[in-house]
Amino acid sequence: MSVEGTCTLPLPSPADKFEAVFHLRRQEEGTLTAVTYGTHADRPTSDIDIDFDGGRLTEAQAIKAIKATKATKAIAKTVRLNSALYAAVDADTITGASRAGRLPVAGVSGGRRPTMECQA
Questions:
Q1: Residue 19 in contact with residue 13, Cβ under 8 Å?
Q2: Interior CA angle at 92 toward 83 and 114, to 5°?
Q3: Domain ranges of the chain
Q4: What whole-number distance in Å separates Cα of residue 95 and Cα of residue 51?
Q5: Going by C-beta distance under 8 Å and a sequence separation of 6 or more, which residues neighbour residue 13?
Q6: CA gap 108, 10 in Å, rounded
Q7: How far is the C-alpha of 120 from the C-alpha of 69, rounded, in Å?
Q8: Which residues, 6 or more positions from 90, have their beta carbon under 8 angstroms from its beta carbon?
């Protein structure tokens, strides 16, 4: 089974859900690489530890997150969180769990985006 392609996963956060887009590619030497984009990201992230083995996808990366104060819910500062994703891949469906920093584990479900074909 191949995991290469573009996948979309809605990921929960304390404020709302945001959509993460993963571009997964296997290099010539067999190493799986990924670039992620998110609805709140200003640029892609490629510093990702990712593995796919036997239908299981695992991913870990350090992300920037906005920390808000409880009283005013105003933006206090940007913090770094370690995020992790553990998911099963079945054809075009991805289901599993994600976690960022001290936040609770949350279930995730998404899938592969259809490939666009060029038409003459």
A1: no
A2: 100
A3: 5-110
A4: 15
A5: 65, 100, 103
A6: 7
A7: 54
A8: 55
The letter for the amino acid at 54 is: G
Residue at token pair 């959509």:
19
3-class SS string, 47-58: CCEEEEECCEEE
Work out whether the CA dihedral 44, 50, 53, 55 comes out positive or negative: negative
User: What pLDDT is stored for residue 95 in this prediction?
Assistant: 92
Strand order in the sheet with 32-38: 32-38, 17-26, 5-12, 106-112, 93-100, 75-90, 56-68, 49-53
Q: Could you state, in chain order, the average pLDDT of each consecutive group of 10 residues for the chain (120 residues)?
A: 82 71 84 76 67 87 67 62 86 88 86 60
